[in-house]
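Appendix B, record 7
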Amino acid sequence: MTARPVKHSVTLHGHRTSISLEAPFWSELRSIAAQKEMPINALVSEIDEGRGMDSGLASAIRVYVLRSLKERLPSAE
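C-alpha cells (predicted):
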C-alpha cells in the first residue's frame, strides 16, 4: 500500500474530472458506494453537492469517508 495519492477520473455533472486520493480512501469510497448500491460517480456527486466552497473535493471525500467509518464504530457508553 502506498501513501502517495492515486489519480482517478470521475464524471461530475456530465464533465470528467480527476481526483487524487490515497489508495485506502479509494477502497473505502468504493465500499461505501457498494453498500449504498450506487455508482461511485453518483456518490462523488452527492459529496460534491454537500461540500462547502471552502473545501476541495478530495478533502471533502476524505472527510466523508472518515465520518462514514466513525459511524460504523460501536459507541463507547
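Remarks on this record: The longest strand covers residues 5-12. The radius of gyration is 13 Å.
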